[in-house]
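User: Round two. Same drill as before: sequence, then structure, for each protein.

Assistant: Same drill it is. First protein:
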Amino acid sequence: MNRELENISPSTFKFSSNHSSPAAKWRRRSRTIPALVLAFALTWLLLPALLIVTFLRDLIRDRTLPTVRLTVFGAWWLSMELLGVLTAFFFWLIFAPPKKLQSDRSQRWHSRLQRTWARSLAWGARFTIRLRWSTEGLDCLHRSGPIVVLARHGSQGDALLAAALLSGEGRRLRFVLKQQLLTDPCLDVVGHRIPNYFVNRDSVNNQEELQNINLLAEDLDQDEALIIFPEGTRFSQEKLAAALLNLHETSPLRTATVANLRSVLPVRTAGTLAVLSASKADIVICNHVGISDISSLQELRDEVPLRNPLRFKLSRVPRKEMPEVSDEVAVTQWLDDRWIEVDEWVTKNENASLPKTWN
């Protein structure tokens, strides 16, 4: 590994702003980890009764058994969460006493834990809520060299799905994630031992955020991928209207380019430019359709079993084929052009006929 976290001064790199100090982590985890243990114990203790009640409810209302499926998946999720936290504690016992928690070996072990956790959750979703997916362009992940992944953000599960997809192809991952995900104890603990940045999307002064995103992108190893969601938030028609209005006020020239977007949000360029200025890695654009944003448990229940399998499309752009980052206007135009292509593919394939074979 070219760069170990132990070689980065805590004063220059943080995993998140104001949420990664020892006091902040212990304060947060003293609530989230006991809550996880309690939820796991109660769910599995009451699972037989829960299954009977939900089965009878579904028998009357919906014989595809959505509530039963969600209950089983919830129990599986809690199990994987707790197993991940316990495994991370075991790793801490091995690496922390000799002060090797940020060593290359430790980070590789934690990356494998991340891969196993993500793929186990995806596997559980497949057999409970009927998550299925296919991938076009998977071979672009097999070429040598680090990559920066610009991923479309269409649903709450995008980070998990991206982790399952890319880590399954042998990539160790670095993520730019929203700070709210620190309430997930497994993401919190493991995410603070391998390179990630939990960004505060509502920060008034984003210079510290951009500095840490920039540091995160430095010295990617040959088998690493940095994943960032350039839209900054999940897509909705309301968010698209607001984003276009904001661009009209702050960057009217860009508005003319992206005014016809229908299915994705315009790129928030600051974070993406911070990544590209720190890394010369190739770009992989990760597009997908199949799961829309779900804002409530009732909406999720209404979608289960999932009717629309996911379709991923990956395309790799050699870094030499894009403008130099020093030309911010040209890079911004290049990103907007690529995102128009993303939008066209999503709009065309959102309701297209489904492929015959699925993972």
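Second protein:
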Amino acid sequence: MKNKKSLGTYLLILAGVLALINIISESFFFRLDFTADKRFTLSKASKDILKSLNEPVTITAYFSEDLPPDIAKTRSDFKDLLVEYSSVSGGNVLYEFINPNEDEESEQKAMQSGIQPVLINSREKDQAIQKKAYLGALVQMGEQQDIIPFLQPGAAMEYTLSSSIKKLSIVDKPVIGFVQGHGEPALSSMQQASAALNIMYKAEPVTMNDTSNNLLKYNTIAIIAPKDSFPPSHFRQIDEYLASGENIFLAVNRVDGNLSNAQGSTVSTGLETWLANKGITLENNFVIDASCVSVSVPQRFGNMTISTQIGFPYIPIANTFEDHPVTKGLEAVVLQFVSSITFTGDTSITFTPVVKSSDKSGTQTSPTWFNVMKQWTNQDFPLKKLTLGAVITGRLSGAQSSKMVLIADGNFPINGEGREFMQLQPDNVNLLVNAVDWLSDDTGLIELRTKGITSRPIEQLEDATKVMLKITNLLLPVIIIIIYGIYRVLHNKNIRVKRMEEGYV
């Protein structure tokens, strides 16, 4: 009877402790993050955004259920993230989850909110089937709203959500001035870049004049692919802008090519001289690279003409990047007729190469003739890791410190217009947006753009290491079970021996 009363007391105490823990957990949220990149720890940037909210943000998450485990994990991760956002914001982030597959009304609501379904492959009862899945969210603040149409599994989830909340909560967007008047392309010919920038900034053209410096009202200015010369008064205004501590993005063509006549020529705008006075040299050369795009070349075979794809080293695919916010997470940027950059400045300026050529690259002095039919060999690429883009910080003009991002190709963010429109590589756009973020945004959100699952493919390991890992994965569980079995046998044997001893109680 006494034992029953004690058991009842223990159960009541246990129930009370669990209830207390549940009550405390409603007010306090924490978790331990042992991942190498602190994937599940909110950044300071996100915390600052959440703590500065003046009114509630409502997030309606439209996620399907009964999905394959790797897809379902996205829903779980997003819910955990929302719980933490709600906790850090002091309850200013409210959320609910809706399963659009549950009924037609929920599905219509999801689609009206801008969340479109995607088809995913799944297996049920040993059969491969396709399922319609929703993995998106609607973020609302007052009368404003922003749509996250699809959360890619393994993508930078925190960056996506924090950017969406900041987009709604920001009062005055930073203004980015795109300099015009020297043959630069209009903003309308950079549709992809403009669309990406206008999420967090206000991008507008600015034409420099000779009477007053109208650059000073911009958070950052961008000069992209000028063709005509800059007058001395414009350089003075740019120097004044830098002297005030502001920042500049430059994408400049030192050389250019014409595929119709296979000629490569030099471009002179005065920017190359202005940069050289700061110890930054845009070399008068074409960088050639074994890692390059292919061009279509017509070839005659008898009476037939067949288009053949041939590698064209004058249009490199840059895939070697420094670990820097401007280039972090980039995989491939196509650079059309790019030059190399060298630095000879003093210690008042810090020069950091961030975009480089591959280990098989070289240079050709401009002007040059493009031999499209040339059979390239390794001897044509004796150089490696030439600087194609750089970050420059320090006293670029005057006593104030300022920042500059320089890419030695002005064409990389340009789509063109009308019939000349061309879809860009995603990383071409990301390079420009990353650079503007780093120059203009002091919240630290750029650090989150590539925060997600780190890829560590086994294919990059040596064959011997891969074999060892496979054998270890196969045998280790078996060995552990055998050792545990031997331990249990010996342990039970010892117990039996003790029980057989005289005086055992």
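Residues 175-448 form a domain with the Rossmann fold fold (CATH 3.40.50.880).

User: Perfect.
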